[in-house]
Design a protein that fits this description.
Distance between the termini: 5 Å
Oligomer: single chain
Family: Belongs to the ABC transporter superfamily.
Pfam families: ABC_tran (PF00005)
CATH architecture of one domain: 3-Layer(aba) Sandwich
Mean pLDDT: 87
InterPro entries: AAA+_ATPase (IPR003593), ABC_transp_ATP-bind (IPR050319), ABC_transporter-like_ATP-bd (IPR003439), ABC_transporter-like_CS (IPR017871), P-loop_NTPase (IPR027417)
Largest sheet: 6 strands, mixed
CATH topology of one domain: Rossmann fold
GO molecular function: ATP binding; ATP hydrolysis activity
Low-confidence stretches: 1-8
CATH class of one domain: Alpha Beta
Strand content: 15-25%
Helix content: 25-40%
Number of helices: 10
Organism: Conexibacter woesei (strain DSM 14684 / CCUG 47730 / CIP 108061 / JCM 11494 / NBRC 100937 / ID131577)
Length: 260
């Protein structure tokens, strides 16, 4: 499967000078990237490099400095009411789907909650469609999160994110806890969803082999900064920094051509 060609129109998401501090300690500094519709950016780096912090800051879970612009609209300069609606267009799929789902709620209720204010029958129909979109039976709506496998819960988390009809999905290490066969199924699903819905995606991972099968472009993070970024084939095929080369050398038989 080949990654979709990179788009060159105006970015759906533009992050500029993003910085996050905890007290006097700066953990992310000066992060900038753009994302076009239908494009996937792989955000890579070692654990603790700041990848997940960037994700949480972009979706508004952390206070930050810098600009986050969605379709030309600066999210940091909107009223609270307007911002709430705009934030729905950028959805985070977390690393641990079980922790993000209320164990007391059925899967259907959890997804319906993200649909917003719709008539009950319409919500039920939408939940069934979303579950089928992520290759789960509509009957799964009546079950609770603990009744599913890790891979199935990850699909449920993706369905919940899609319920908001986002333009951008940020997938934070969503395959790291999955075995290879389940991981392949989730990645296949992401490819299909991106092609069908023209989703823009930030795919966060420390696994460069997985990123090589998903991303069009790559940004390499180290100590809270992006140290290198560019098209996948360029960064993986001829890295400019010693750090990127070190990461790539640790991955056996990596496909640097931008797809499989």
């Amino acid at each position: 499967m080949k990654a979709a060609a990179m788009r060159h129109d105006d970015p759906v998401l533009a992050v500029s000078g993003l910085s996050v501090a905890y007290g006097r300690t700066t953990v992310v500094e000066g992060v900038s990237f753009t994302l076009a519709r239908g494009q996937t950016l792989g955000l890579v780096g070692e654990s603790g490099s700041g990848k997940s912090t960037v994700a949480k800051a972009v979706v508004g879970l952390l206070r930050c400095e810098g600009d986050v612009v969605l379709d030309g609209i600066d999210l940091r300069r909107q009223s609270r009411r307007r911002l709430r609606a705009l934030r729905r267009r950028v959805q985070l799929v977390p690393q641990d789907p079980y922790a993000s789902l209320n164990p007391r709620m059925t899967v259907g209720a959890a997804i319906a909650e993200a649909l917003g204010d719709r008539p009950r029958r319409e919500r039920s129909h939408a939940v069934a469609e979303l579950l089928e979109t992520v290759a789960l039976d509509a009957a799964a709506a009546a079950k609770h999160p603990h009744e599913f496998s890790g891979g199935q819960r990850q699909r449920i988390a993706i369905a919940r994110a899609l319920a908001a009809e986002p333009d951008v999905v940020i997938a934070d290490e969503i395959t790291s806890a999955l075995d290879c066969s389940v991981q392949a199924g989730v990645l296949e699903l992401l490819h299909e969803l991106r092609a069908r819905r023209e989703l823009a995606m930030v795919f966060i991972s420390h696994d460069l082999a997985v990123v090589s099968n998903v991303a069009d472009a790559v940004a390499v993070m180290r100590h809270g900064r992006i140290v290198e970024q560019g098209p996948l084939a360029e960064v993986f095929g001829a890295p400019r920094t010693d750090y990127a080369r070190l990461l790539l050398d640790a991955v056996p038989q990596l496909d640097t051509a931008g797809g499989r």
